[in-house]
Amino acid sequence: MDSQLKPRILFTRDEIEAVVKRLAAEVSQDYQGKCPLLLGILKGSFVFMADLIRLLDFPLEVEFVKVSSYGRGRESSGKAKLVKGFSSPVKDRDVLIVEDILDTGLTTSVVSDYLREKKPASLKLCALTDKPSRRRIPVTADYLGFTLPDKFIVGYGLDWNQKFRNLPDICYLE
Ligand code: XMP
Ligand code: MG
């Protein structure tokens, strides 16, 4: 079944590069002179995180959390929980969540709740992509790359059953 799915390009690597540059410029304006903690949500955000931080020329730290929500396939179970936290202090830090895709909003809200308990100085969200039509929990990105149609996307870190993360372009499956 998986082998019949053909990835079709939605956003090219050049378009992604331009958008990541724009996001890095916006983030730089707000965090210059601070030392934020960039918190990626595994696994999908790892490619975006790697490109984003190399465009930021001020001190920062990186951590990752993992949230289980999607099982195999396209549909969320409707539940999400944090399955890997991290040990860096959060209290009084500027924290920026880095997410590959905002879909129902469940994953981001689980991570935001976890962080708010730790009393950060500030908490913002940088999302590479957003599917607003699918939102169930009101979450908005402070920094947003692409707005998506209601299609399942892969590539640039995003997967279908753990495959396709290595595609350099953002694609949808046909
Ligand atoms: P929620 O619904 O919690 O979803 O906002 C966020 C998480 O769900 C995964 N997700 C996708 N992964 N292509 C993917 O590869 C998609 O189109 C897609 N939509 C949601 C993703 O792991 C994200 O962190
Ligand atoms: Mg996934």
Task: Provide a short characterization of the protein structure.
The protein has 174 residues and is an alpha/beta fold.
Which ligands are bound?
A: xanthosine-5'-monophosphate, magnesium ion
For the largest beta-sheet, the strand count, sense and barrel status come to:
6 strands, mixed
Helix count equals 3
Kindly, what is the distance between the CA atoms of the first and last residues, rounded to a whole number of angstroms? 12 Å
Counting helices, strands and paired strands, the structural category is alpha/beta
Order of strands across the widest beta sheet? 4-3-2-5-6-7
% residues in beta strands: 25-35%
Named CATH architecture? 3-Layer(aba) Sandwich
Average pLDDT number = 93
Give the number of DSSP strands.
9
Low-confidence stretches: none
Order of helices and strands: EHEHEEEHEEEE
Question: What is the highest CATH level, the class?
Answer: Alpha Beta
Tally of distinct domains? 1
Helix content: 10-25%
Evaluate the radius of gyration: 16 Å
Q: Label the overall shape.
A: globular
Structure description:
By secondary structure, the chain is of the alpha/beta class. The chain has a single domain (16-149), classed as Rossmann fold. The chain has helices at residues 13-31, 46-53, 106-116; strands spanning 7-11, 37-42, 61-70, 76-84, 94-102, 122-130, 143-147, 153-154, 170-173. The N and C termini lie close together (12 Å). The structure holds xanthosine-5'-monophosphate (XMP) and magnesium ion (MG).
